[in-house]
Amino acid sequence: MVPLPVMPLPEQVVADYQTLRLSLKAHPMAFLRKSLRQQGYAAAQDLATARNHQRVKLAGLVLVRQRPGSAKGVCFITLEDETGTMNLVVWPKVMEEFRKTIMQARLLAVEGRVQREVEIVHVVAERLIDRTDALLRLAPEGFAPAFSHADEVVRPVQGSARSPQTGHPRDARIVPKSRDFH
């Protein structure tokens, strides 16, 4: 038997997200929370006590992006962190300014104002930042396994799902998929 080093918990969570798109061990945001708090970012649970029109900074994994035809160009985004979910409202002007960030980010940071109506809390986004790079720091090695010469695909089978451009599934970065529909 060869003793293998213990995989750190953040890397275990990354591996879970790579293969299952979820993890029962922890949430990726839990490993980033200390740094986010130092930068002034609140957690989803903090919205329960936020005042109406209060300025907030939040960050979370993108779960859903919606831009219904009946919403006159308004985009709705649901973010998730280790404490819960956050609902964002993105007005058309902000959507136009931050479109690339909104459509590509897997970890999204937002600055905006709380909009509260009784128990329903939204954050009206004013600024959005793609922080997907922070997820990549959870597994600095990137899970690049050592390949032997036998692992190389010289002539892939015609029509197969695997091609030289797509690489091996183990090389996937932690980029949790969002469940978008329009």
UniProtKB/TrEMBL annotation:
It holds the Pfam family tRNA_anti-codon. One of its GO terms (molecular function) is 3'-5' exonuclease activity. GO terms for biological process: DNA replication. Belongs to the DNA polymerase type-C family. DnaE2 subfamily. This is Error-prone DNA polymerase. It comes from Rubellimicrobium mesophilum DSM 19309. Coiled coil: none annotated. Residues 168-182 have a biased composition (Basic and acidic residues). Gene3D superfamilies: Nucleic acid-binding proteins. InterPro entries: DnaE2/DnaE/PolC, NA-bd_OB-fold, NA-bd_OB_tRNA. Residues 56-125 form the OB domain. It comes from the Bacteria. Residues 156-182 are annotated as: Disordered.
